[in-house]
Structures are given as structure tokens and as C-alpha cells.
Amino acid sequence: MRQFDFGIFKRICLGACLMVGTFGGTTASAQEFGKNILTGGPNGTYIQIGRDLAEVADACGLTYAIQESAGSLENFLGVRRRSNTQFGIVQSDVLEYLKTYASDDPNIARAIFGVRIAFPLYNEEVHILARRDIASLAGLNGKRVAVGVEDSGTFLTSSLVLDLAGVKPSERVTINATDSMERLLAGDIDAMFYVAGAPTKLFQSDQIDAAQFHLLPIDDPTLSSVYVPTSIAAGTYPFQSDAIDVVAVKAVLMTYDYNAKKNEYHRLSCKAVSDMSNLILTNFRQLQEVGHPKWKSVDLNDIPPGWDIGECVNAGLADSYQMQCASPAPMAADESLESQANEAYRARICAAIGC
């Protein structure tokens, strides 16, 4: 197996991780307090998932503001660094990359301290839209490839994919997805990466000519061992007539391990996490029926290994948790051998929606 230079992630994270503050000591009055979810760009799946959550909360009389961002790394660090930011949608491989450095870099260890998962979400497909004359991943050798901005999950994953596959573009262009699309259509670059749950709005444009562009298959055995092999069904996008084998990474709704006894800010933030957790559970079927299509593939029991569910999440899933607009279902027993936090989470999920 080819070795990947994780130093690229360390360089990206270093400046941002140094800025991670101790917002856990922040105090906030009820008047100052806000509830925010960091998502992604305007055309991505993250922001649509965030809007679904905000609508569920709004029906309960609660306001969670949806914030655009560059993507996973900004969201990860934002939950740690920004006040009034209780949630961020993050690719699970971003968590793993940062955790790799925690043992020998105190700045990164500080950045991931207290990070928890609220809910596992869906698999995000790795889209590579390329000129029609480029037939495979190897065909990107010597080409100009857009890989996302440096604080995005697309950048992290595309860098890993290219390095593990041994592909060396002539230029890795660090621009966002919208600019990548514009430059690809204009002929200024040869291909673009975009990591997002299919169908993503960006690729549903009728400007993408099937005679000139297509999605590249990703069938490298090394990548299949690192990521989840999957496919994008035929007809998912207007220009795509055949199913395409690709790989995917799981998205998660992440939060922080707030301590309700620490101060008023922590208490209010913990309640915000608990409220949203309860709303997701009690409205899960509705989200699957009327939310973004990716909700249909969400497995709430598929917790990425090595990461724990937050205590404030489990508080919101408990039998005793009371919300004016929701009535929690009774909890069933669970005998799985794992952390107490994850065990309590699974028990509540199974009781409410089955396993």
C-alpha cells in the first residue's frame, strides 16, 4: 500500500489549531446566547441537511441559525473555537486525520479535546468531474485539477485520494466548488473534486455537457481499502447515463462535550444540543420523507470507530427529557460492549426507530 504524507494536514491545521481558544470558559447571558450549525457552501449537501434541521427546530419554536462555511475542517475547528456554535457537519476522515497527530502535537491535541459526535449521518460520495477525454483517475497525471479550498473536507480527501493512488497532477488548484465548476466549464482546468452527498445541487446544472464532461470512476484497490466503495446511480445527474463506481466518506454531525455544571454558557449550549438531539430522533421519519434524499440512507447506529457520543446528546434522548413539542418513546435495553455513552445512544435509537 502506498504511504500518504499526513504532513499536509498538519500544515493546514497548524495555524488554525493554534487559534483554538478555551471558549469553554465563556459565559453568556440568555440575551447574548445563540444556537448555530456550521454547514458548507450554498450548493452543497451540508447546507441542505442543516436547513432540514433548522426547519424541524422552527416547528418546535426554536431557532438554530445555519451558517455557510468552506467545509469540514472549518466546521471542526469552528465548533471548538467559536462561541454560540454547538454543531458542525464534518467528514469522519477529517476527525481521523487530526487524531493521528494528537499524540505528538499539543496544538492538535488541544483542538480535538472534547470533540464528540451528535449523530452519524450519510456517506458522501467523492465526485471527480473531468473532461471526457480523461478516462480514469490515472488520467489526471499531469493535468490541472481543482481540489477544494484548504480548509475544506474536499481538499483533505482529494489530497489523500491523489496521493494514495499515486496520481500527480501538474497543478492542484485550491478553489471552492463554485469556482471550480466555472473554470472547468471554461476550459481553464481539466477536472475537479467535490466531496458531497449525491445528488448534490452543484452537478444538477444543465450547463454540464455530457459530450464534454463525465464523472470519473474510482476503483483503485488502495482507495477501496481506505474508503467505502459505493456507486452513483445512473441518472443521478442530467449528464450521467450510467452508474459510476466511486468511494465515499461518512459525514457526521459533531458537537462539543459541554458540562452543564460548569457555567451558564455550557448549560445553555448543552440544552441546545439536547433539544436538537431530541428533535432529530422524534422527527427522524419526517426528515427521511421530506428532507434531502440523503436522509434515507442515514443509519443512526453507524457510529464511526474511536469517537464517542456527547453526554448532552444522550441527555436529549433520555426517557425523562421533556420538550413541549416532542414526547420521547421508551428506551429499550442494549447489551453491546462499548462505551457507556455509545451504549445509551444506541438503546435510544433502537427504541425509537428500530435497529
From TrEMBL:
Name the Pfam families on file.
NMT1_3 (PF16868)
Q: What is this protein called?
A: C4-dicarboxylate ABC transporter substrate-binding protein
Q: Lineage of the native species?
A: Bacteria, Pseudomonadati, Pseudomonadota, Alphaproteobacteria, Rhodobacterales
